[in-house]
Specification:
Residues 69-118 form the HNH nuclease domain. GO terms for molecular function: endonuclease activity. Keywords: Endonuclease, Hydrolase, Nuclease. InterPro entries: HNH_5, HNH_nuc, NA-targeting_endonuclease. The structure is a single chain. The chain is of the alpha+beta class and 166 residues long. The protein has two domains: 2-63 and 144-164, no CATH class; 71-128, no CATH class. Helix content is 19%, strand content 21%. It contains five helices and eight strands. It has a four-stranded mixed sheet with strand order 2-1-6-3, covered by helices on one side. A two-stranded antiparallel ribbon has the order 4-5. A two-stranded antiparallel sheet has the order 7-8. The structure holds zinc ion. Residues 82, 84-85, 87, 112-113, 115-116 line the site of zinc ion (ZN). The site of zinc ion has 8 residues, from helix 3.
């Protein structure tokens, strides 16, 4: 059972165990903004199980470079839209094919529909006369540093907003 921690400005900050979340709430450092499932039964009290908590004070997070590009991350960044045709995408494509030295970087990975992926194969964009609908870039913002957000709990969605607005 995981709890999403929001910074005082409501941006996602971390994912912690619900026990850790309860400690923050009981210490007066955070407030529960969404609950889920069965309550937690302690020795003397019964607590609502927090699924989202909000820190009462803003925490400054140093910007960390070099978030690793993952398949799920690329699909999230590109809003599950194919970088070539704009249709719903479930796969990820290397813009410069691996066989031609293309790497697993945010700049070289894009969301891609199965049809375009099959058509593209090991070819370059130049060979196909294709163009990217956007320039792939590493995403910015704290939420991209949080790997657990690749599999968000249903209760978190209202607090995650648009991924592209990170
Ligand atoms: Zn496509």
């Amino acid at each position: 059972m995981r709890t999403l921690v929001l910074n005082a400005g409501y941006e996602p900050l971390a994912v912690v165990t619900f026990r850790r979340a309860l400690v923050l709430v009981l210490a007066g450092k955070a407030s529960v903004v969404a609950e889920s499932g069965e309550p937690v039964v302690g020795p003397n009290e019964v607590f609502a199980r927090p699924s989202v908590i909000l820190l009462n004070r803003y925490v400054r997070v140093p910007y960390r470079e070099g978030t690793v590009a993952t398949r799920r991350g690329v699909l999230r960044r590109d809003d599950h839209r194919c970088a070539y045709c704009g249709k719903a995408a479930a796969t990820v494509d290397h813009v410069v094919p691996k066989s031609r030295g293309g790497g697993d970087s945010w700049e070289n990975l894009v969301a891609c529909c199965l049809r375009c992926n099959n058509a593209k194969g090991d070819k370059t964009l130049k060979q196909l006369g294709w163009e990217l609908r956007f320039r792939p870039q590493p995403p910015r913002g704290a939420r991209w540093q949080i790997r657990e957000l690749e599999r968000p709990a249903p209760q978190w969605h209202a607090f995650l907003g648009s991924d592209t607005a990170a």
